[in-house]
Amino acid sequence: FGSSCLVPNILSVCIGKCALGKFRVRCTDTHQVVHPALVPEVGMLCAPCKGADKETDTVKIDPRAFKVEREAEASTTEEQQQHEEEEKRRSDDQKRLAAEEHRLAEEERLAQERLAQELAQKQRLDAVRRQEDDAALKRQQEHDRRRAEQLERHKEEVDTAREREEEDARKLEKWLAAKKFHDPNAKKSKWFKSSLPLHQAVVDVNAEMVRILIAHNADVNAENSSKQTPAQLAEKLSQKGPGKYDSVLSALRR
């Protein structure tokens, strides 16, 4: 088929079939045969026919309208491509924006998790610290309570001891006066015999007075006229009455 025809003003069609069974078109200006594929309008308008009739089987085409239509189609295609590219850019922008929002949301979530973990850790540490403080306070309170009890007991013991000392002093003074001794270590002589308060308390089997005399600095090693200490005298007397002087001996040995 001829291919140099550039769509002249008027085309004659249906002049027969080519070897491939396609209709052939002849240009009325150059009289060259043009394949119908080069002129789509011909293919759409031309229908199969039994024989070619140059007079009756002729389709007239306006090349200017054809050119305008082709340009319109090209423009539409370009606009469609631009629209598709714009849609693609918009879609890509939306995807990037969504990805950025997701990233920021994930960072915010992680930050919130870290903050929650730090807060929980702080609360645990505060709870442990409060427990330790409470335990320390309880220990201090218990220590103070025991200390106060000890001080109270000590005070009671001191008061009791003082009262006992005062009572012992009164008893000693009364006993010394009754036995005619001036003090716990005063020696009393009669008929070439001498005696001391401790020796007299031993003879009287008065263990309480032995204790009081010793508490008031009576000499436990002092000897009477028989060269006997209070303990030696008590042991000698105990031979006459076994067990009778045990309390006196116990008081002397303390």
TrEMBL record:
Bias kind Polar residues: ranges: 222-231
UniProt repeat feature ANK, residue ranges: 193-225
Keyword set, alphabetical order: ANK repeat
Gene3D superfamilies reported for this sequence: Ankyrin repeat-containing domain
Disordered as annotated region, ranges: 69-96, 126-168, 220-254
Pfam families for this protein: Ank_5
InterPro entries given in the database record: Ankyrin_rpt (IPR002110), Ankyrin_rpt-contain_sf (IPR036770)
Bias (Basic and acidic residues) ranges: 80-96
Superkingdom of the organism of origin: Eukaryota
UniProt name for this protein: Uncharacterized protein
Species this protein is from: Noctiluca scintillans (Sea sparkle)
